[in-house]
Design goal:
six-stranded mixed sheet; 16 strands; about 400 residues; disordered N terminus; alpha/beta
């Protein structure tokens, strides 16, 4: 969707975000410190906590864990939003956090209540049923919605932020195709969605390449090796192997394929964002190409995030940071009523700490993922031509 030589409709936003790299430990705006604690204590009112007090309201809906505080991913979302308000809010936006208990019908009511308070954006990680419920509320009765997942429910002014493993797989295999690999074998866990498999195969076909076969694997190492051995035909006919999976199993899959000795010398292995980082350190993953969120852009805030919250930056925190940054940038340029579809779906896109992204008219994220190569356990930007293995 992006225009050639990408321009940014929010140039001030892009400049503000990128300029943060010059001052590694710049202090946060005091308006971000309404709460002195990173963890949120259960409050007596529906509005749990606020970062800042001036400007347009962003409502952040987050559930609490059993301990009564934000945990896991939700703590990352909380902290990413807090950092963004402190660095980019500039009294243009502030964040109010409300508790999402997951009770039936509650999400839609909270969305309407946020609109009644004057909130311009509703941000959260919404399960499918919740997102459908929120989407069903007329667009003029709720804020613009930014789902920190992929935002799959239909509805006006509903936008997803996250890219998934399928997006990564498609971007990675397109890179391989563009560099001359025209025959692709897909290897996926037995549990991988058939619909997502169809998304990938359609993308390969649209790029005028062919799928030599789809191999499903599962079980222990012996079962994986057996699946590779029994599908020697489609694997040996391919010059690119796309290996999906969210565990360490992909390393076993790649190792088993290499051990057959029956693949072309120029075989390109394509990994995905689902691979855990521990897979990179093994010899099987060496020289694999993987499409990921821009790792260099993430470094713009990773040092300050680590210093402030005493743990490494998580991608979820970066998504929340960019959600707040996008609202702040548009509000700065267009005012609190500026979150319009024609602005958010502008072909020029946006640049944030998760890289370059934009939305299509249906609200689906279109993220410009970057291609990396695993080189001796480290991710390095890929060269134009995949290396010969």
């Amino acid at each position: 969707m992006f225009e050639r030589g990408i321009r940014f409709v929010l140039a001030p936003l892009a400049i503000t975000v990128l300029s943060l790299s010059a001052g590694c430990q710049s202090p946060l705006d005091d308006t971000a410190n309404a709460s002195k604690s990173v963890d949120i204590k259960p409050p007596p009112s529906q509005v749990q906590e606020a970062f800042g007090t001036k400007g347009a309201e962003i409502t952040l809906m987050l559930p609490k864990g059993a301990s009564g505080v934000r945990e896991g991913r939700y703590r990352d979302f909380h902290d990413g939003a807090q950092l963004a308000v402190g660095e980019l809010g500039g009294e243009q936006v502030f964040v109010k956090i409300v508790d999402d208990t997951g009770a039936p019908g509650e999400a839609a009511k909270l969305a309407e209540a946020a609109k009644a308070r004057g909130s311009v954006a509703l941000v959260g990680l919404f399960p499918a049923a919740e997102l459908a419920s929120i989407s069903a509320v007329p667009a003029d009765k709720r804020p613009t919605v930014f789902d920190l997942g992929r935002g799959t429910a239909s509805g006006a002014n509903v936008y997803g932020l996250a890219s998934d493993e399928t997006d990564s797989a498609i971007a990675g295999v397109r890179y391989a195709i563009a560099t001359g690999r025209k025959k692709v074998v897909i290897l996926a866990p037995a549990s991988f969605s058939t619909a997502e498999e169809q998304r990938i195969t359609a993308a390969i076909t649209n790029d005028k390449a062919t799928v030599t076969g789809v191999v499903r694997y599962g079980g222990d190492e012996a079962a994986i090796k057996a699946a590779v051995a029994s599908n020697a035909g489609p694997i040996s006919a391919a010059d690119a192997a796309l290996v999906l999976g969210g565990t360490t199993a992909p390393a076993v899959v790649v190792g088993a394929i290499k051990a057959t000795g029956k693949t072309p010398a120029t075989m390109t292995f394509v990994g995905t964002s689902g691979w855990p980082g521990s897979v990179y350190s093994g010899p099987a993953a060496d020289q694999t190409v993987i499409a990921l969120t821009d790792q260099e852009s993430l470094k713009l805030i990773s040092g300050r995030y680590q210093s402030r919250f005493k743990r490494p930056l998580a991608l979820d925190a970066a998504y929340a940071y960019d959600a707040v940054a996008t609202v702040a940038g548009i509000t700065r340029l267009k005012g609190p009523d500026g979150l319009k579809p024609d602005i958010l779906a502008n072909k020029a896109g946006f640049r944030g700490v998760t890289g370059v992204f934009g939305w299509n008219k249906g609200g689906t994220i279109d993220r410009k993922l970057k291609i990396y190569r695993v080189d001796q356990g480290k991710l390095v930007p890929a060269v134009n031509t995949p290396p010969t293995l």
